């Protein structure tokens, strides 16, 4: 919608255009604006992706390696929709696995997927969680490269 407004602002009216310019050129102005805006968004997206890859110290090829990590999160993580938010974040990142409450008041689970997405999820588990949660500590163990995913989706285990 914002792009349409900018494009409309750049369209020159028939009376304002020079007589020597062909009519077909003036009809193409909005298309050029859309193409330039789309190119700008693509460059911005690629820049964001490359910063994620740089921050994890991985090459793009390593980002396609599948890995599995077990985790346990300590703090105020039960009764605050932590499992629900964990499942939603995992699905948003394209990960599979599971999450469950423990009798010790923690939340534990397993995440599997491409290395970069798993590392992004680990950071989310360490620092963000659900809005009402308080994360004191996050432990990750049994981190390993896997040949294929062992789960079909991201489950909340009761």
Automatic annotation (TrEMBL):
InterPro entries: Acylphosphatase (IPR020456), Acylphosphatase-like_dom (IPR001792), Acylphosphatase-like_dom_sf (IPR036046), Acylphosphatase_CS (IPR017968). Its EC number is 3.6.1.7. Keywords: Hydrolase. It catalyses: an acyl phosphate + H2O = a carboxylate + phosphate + H(+). Coiled coil: none annotated. It comes from the Eukaryota. This is Acylphosphatase.
């Amino acid at each position: 919608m914002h792009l349409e407004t900018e494009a409309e602002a750049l369209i020159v009216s028939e009376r304002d255009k020079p007589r020597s310019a062909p009519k077909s050129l003036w009809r193409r102005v909005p298309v050029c604006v859309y193409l330039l805006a789309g190119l700008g968004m693509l460059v911005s997206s690629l820049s964001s992706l490359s910063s994620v890859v740089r921050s994890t110290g991985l090459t793009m090829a390593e980002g396609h390696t599948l890995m599995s990590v077990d985790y346990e999160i300590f703090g105020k993580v039960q009764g605050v929709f932590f499992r629900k938010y964990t499942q939603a974040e995992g699905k948003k990142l394209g990960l599979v696995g599971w999450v469950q409450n423990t009798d010790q008041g923690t939340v534990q689970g397993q995440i599997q997927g491409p290395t970069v997405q798993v590392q992004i999820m680990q950071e989310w588990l360490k620092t963000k969680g659900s809005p009402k949660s308080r994360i004191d500590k996050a432990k990750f163990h049994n981190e390993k490269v896997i040949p294929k995913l062992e789960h079909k989706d991201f489950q909340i285990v009761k």
